[in-house]
Amino acid sequence: MADSEPTADPHTERSARRKIALRLLPLLFLLYVIAYLDRANVGFAKLRMQKDLEFSETVFGVGVALFFVGYLFLEIPGALLVEHWSARKWFARILVSWGFCSMAMALVETPTQFYVARFLLGLAEAGFFPGVIVYFTHWFPRKDRARAMSVMLLGVPLSLAFGARVSAILLEQNWLALKGWQWVFLIEGAPAVLLGIAVPFLLTDRPKQAKWLTPAERDWLESTLEAERNETAATGTVTLKQALKTRNVWMLALALLATNMGGYVFVYWLATVVEGLLGAAGRSANSTNVLDWTGFVYLCGFFGVLISGWSSDRTGDRKGHCIAGQLGAGLFLTLAVIPGQPWLVVFGWLCLTGFFAMFWFTPFWVLPTMTLTSSAAAVSIGVINMCGNLAGGIGSPVVGAIKDAGGGDQTAMAFVAVCFALGAVFVVLVRVPRRTSPPNPLP
Predict the structure, then answer these.
(1) What is the pTM of this model?
(2) Structural domain span for residue 105
(3) What is the pLDDT of residues 373-398, one digit of tens each?
(4) Does a structural domain hold residue 223?
């Protein structure tokens, strides 16, 4: 029989949970904002970089994809190093190396250099996200873990909205004979290096090393986490081969593959699409104007993450929320690229697209824990996440080829819309056990 969760003085438990959240989540949130900005800012720099370097759309698409090829190499080893070595040392290595790799993008002059720089950036950043997932298991009991993850995932839309505004300013600069797009990489890559130097002093590897917790708080946390580990071990282990024979694993993996093919293209190409739509509407399509409008679309995604997390927690309906986000993103993106509409109508469709493009992923990541045993979920989430990263290596080259073949933004975004819709189809096929009782309403 699995160990039951240890009891503790309620004040001790509340105090420990509050201290852990306040100590760890703001820093991890900031790190994820920087991580996502440094992988995605090439989409902002593209507005000037592509013209200056005379890169085709295909070259840009392949360069974007190579980030994810590099990322796959160290994703699993990175998680293992956090578990068996040191999270703060591993995160410090990641931050410093990806910061320098991001800054090195400013030196790119040829397609080959672009490819190498993107591959190395992916290699440098690999292991951060799965490492954070493992790090959460060292600090957050099961009942707090999903909420902690939601806080970190809010960094995705915020990093894009903030990055669009900062990049708009930097693209207009010409300091020290360097072009604006070069300053985008130099300035936005530098914070990762600085934080990498600071992280060993700001993070704590394990609760037993946390001098900022009282002995009673450390004892409660360590005993709670140990009881959860024993409970998981009691359910037995699941091998990779067994996980790959599970129907729901494949449905979730294919759903993430399809949806992320659309989602990553949306992130990397939105600024280009907005530039074309502004020009078609007879409005100014300079870099500042384009990125200001683009940033607002991403800001709508912040509210998508916030509302989907709150609503799906309140209702207990993860599958329906996920499908609504996927279908909504595909529908409104299709409406946005219909020719002949006034700009404000188009922008409204894009804002709704941004909202729903970020609405689906918080409830999605709850589905593996609802549809699989705890032991199977641990292995399967790794498989599902690898398929999600593989999607980043597929979508952008396809869109680059479409545009170079004369397909235009309408055809490219139709491909994205189909990806979102296809992801929804696979989620529909996921079998979720029926609830035996209604969820408890949130206060």
Answers:
(1) 0.84
(2) 10-215
(3) 666 666 777 788 888 888 988 998 99
(4) no
